[in-house]
Amino acid sequence: MVDRDISFAVIGGGNGGKGIAAYLANMGHKVNLYNRTFDKIRKIKELGFIEIEGTISGRGYMDRVTDKIEEAINDVDIIMIATTANAHKYIAREIAPYVTDKQYIVLNPGRTGGALEMLKIIKSINSFRCPCIVEAQTLLFACRAIGEDKINILKKKNHVKVAAMPAIRTKEFINKIHHIIPEFVDGGSVLDTSFNNIGAILHPIPTILNCGRIEDTKGDFLHYIEGITPSVGKIIGEADNERIRIAEMLGVRPMPLIEWLGYTYDAYGTTVCDALHMVTAYMGIKAPGTLDTRYISEDVPQSLVPIADMGQYLGVETPVINSIIHLSSIIHSVDYARTGRKISDMGLDGLTLDGIRSFVSYGEIFESEGEVV
């Protein structure tokens, strides 16, 4: 039986935010929906609900729809942040004066280092507050908005790994939410969720490698089916290997992309290309209609750049990832290697491997004798 006394604020009125808000409200929970630009949620405010179709159908009635963040998060138990990762800094600064020690803040997803960055910002503004910040490895749904007030949930993932900052609070959060979202499972620490960030590999790389096709067809092809050829799959696989080497050095048990596809979508194959072609949820997803897409503007600076920066810090080379960052920077005329999320933004710079591991595990730094990494 669902505990309907647990209340939520959903931060973000895009695809993911509408999906999460509608899903939770449809289960009977009090849900406040916030978006910085009110026009994007005006119709939901007028109707009072979000329509759901697809693998789940129904209506999710909102308790409050607002562009005032204090009003959205006041007195709720769990704050679900479902914005793009490049909005995390802004959201952290906005909620910092109002969050309480009893609240849980969940990044859906955190990309790479999102929970660490958010913790650093909140503590710098409100050092007396210590909310539990949780990072999801990926979004719970594959979903698409249909107009301003309707969401199509294509598929709910089998499992989504989550980790709290610090990790000693992960089980506490899972116990709190398990009866509502049983798909949330213990992901270890935020190093695990961050460096098993599959979106870092799966979003920008196929986009860059299909950039000519996207511009020529305006994205009129199936992104993960027609856009993933054997050669594209090989490049994706090699970038994934670079991520895996960094994760292993951090003490993370890495999940290769090909294994993740089976774990998450029951999609199996002997190659990355074959496995991606077996994901039924991807069969209706077309490529971005333009290269002005969050698959580059979000996933490169907030996912690939922190992976590459950690690789440089640890002495692990990342030539394929670096090349994607460089090509993305040329296409967007933005120096993503300079402007993207760094380990200094996560508060990890200057720490040894032992220091990093103890910080994410316990929220404290216990250094062994020796040099900084």
Briefly, what is this?
This protein is α/β, with parallel strands linked by helices.
Lateral strand order in the biggest sheet:
5-2-1-6-7-8-11-12
* Name of the top-level CATH class of the largest domain: Alpha Beta
Shape: globular
Instruction: Determine the N-to-C terminus distance.
Output: 49 Å
Instruction: Name the CATH architecture of the largest domain.
Output: 3-Layer(aba) Sandwich
Nearest-angstrom radius of gyration? Answer: 20 Å
Residue runs with pLDDT of under 50 for 5 or more positions: none
Largest sheet, in brief, is: 8 strands, mixed
Strand content: 5-15%
Strand and helix order: EHEHEEEHEHEHEEEEHEHHHHHHHHHHHH
The CATH topology name of the largest domain reads: Rossmann fold
Topology:
Elements: E1 8-11, H1 15-26, E2 31-34, H2 42-47, E3 49-54, E4 58-61, E5 64-66, H3 69-73, E6 78-81, H4 88-95, E7 104-107, H5 114-125, E8 132-136, E9 141-145, E10 150-156, E11 160-165, H6 170-177, E12 184-186, H7 190-195, H8 199-202, H9 204-209, H10 211-217, H11 230-249, H12 257-265, H13 272-276, H14 294-297, H15 299-314, H16 319-332, H17 336-339, H18 353-362
